[in-house]
Design brief:
The chain has 269 residues and is an alpha+beta fold. It is 30% helix and 32% strand.
């Protein structure tokens, strides 16, 4: 039995190695740091000038989707009011121990469970974030649900059947700072990871200011199973009107959303 467990663990580790790719030493350091601290944060200042390669995204684990993900979030931006990435790590044992479920022995921590969680748009409603401006927790999404198409505002059930790979959905959300909006969300999935890409299809307004044009706010969540836990990489890029009175508040607002998205995923177990 002990030999079987050791053999099983070896092949799990081998599969994770080939899934994540053969990392250079610095990338392995980031993974190790994320495992230890739970979170690494990196603000991409130089994304405003795409010629400055030394400040490209570097926290994302290298997988078959990573090149496409980085290009999606950061690659087509001529400028950015906010661009950042965070790499989180959470143990499956912690997901179980922190779960509010009464039946902790049967909690599913598989990648299929993660896939359903990331399609549960309706469960974003009531999601909280820490407001760095107000120094308190506020509700991030006052309303959130899936819609059939971008021209509708009628709620439909979350799309949870089967794999998420290749699926595209649309969502209506009323957000604390940016009001009501329509979003496009697309997915990729395999046996070890789920990728969720999200962009605004309508203007995001900050008060009376039309701050972010359609398709100018992009978020990507990449969840990778490493056997004992999950790496969660979140990248965000938002081009918004450059106004000194607006920039500081917008940056704080977007920064808080990275942690809020991670929390939304983990508290659903």
């Amino acid at each position: 039995m002990k030999l079987f467990k050791k053999t099983e663990k070896f092949f799990t580790s081998l599969l994770v190695f080939f899934t994540l790719g053969n990392f250079p030493a610095f990338a392995e350091d980031y993974l190790a740091e994320a495992r230890k601290s739970g979170k690494i944060y990196h603000r991409l200042e130089a994304v405003k000038n795409r010629n400055q390669k030394e400040d490209d995204a570097y926290l994302i684990p290298q997988t078959e989707f990573s090149e496409d993900v980085v290009k999606y979030v950061f690659g087509n931006s001529e400028k950015a009011g906010f661009a950042a990435e965070s790499l989180y790590y959470v143990k499956k044992s912690d997901l179980i121990s922190n779960s509010k479920s009464d039946d902790k022995k049967n909690i599913d921590t598989s990648i299929s469970a993660v896939s359903k969680i990331m399609r549960s748009v309706s469960k974003m409603k009531g999601m909280e974030y820490y407001s760095n401006t107000r120094k308190r927790f506020d509700t991030l999404y006052l309303e959130s649900y899936r819609i059939e198409n971008p021209d509708s505002t009628t709620p439909v059930d979350d799309l949870l059947e089967g794999s998420s790979d290749g699926k595209v959905i649309y969502a209506f959300q009323e957000e604390h700072s940016f009001g009501k909006g329509i979003y496009k969300i697309s997915y990729n999935e395999n046996s070890r990871m789920v990728v969720m890409k999200m962009e605004n299809l309508t203007t995001l307004s900050y008060g009376f200011i039309k701050a972010v044009k359609p398709e100018k706010c992009k978020v990507c969540v990449n969840v990778i199973d490493d056997g004992d836990g999950y790496f969660v990489w979140i990248g965000m890029n938002a081009d918004f009107m450059q106004m000194s009175i607006l920039e500081k508040k917008m940056n704080k607002s977007f920064m808080a959303r990275l942690d809020a998205i991670f929390k939304w995923i983990t508290i659903q177990f």
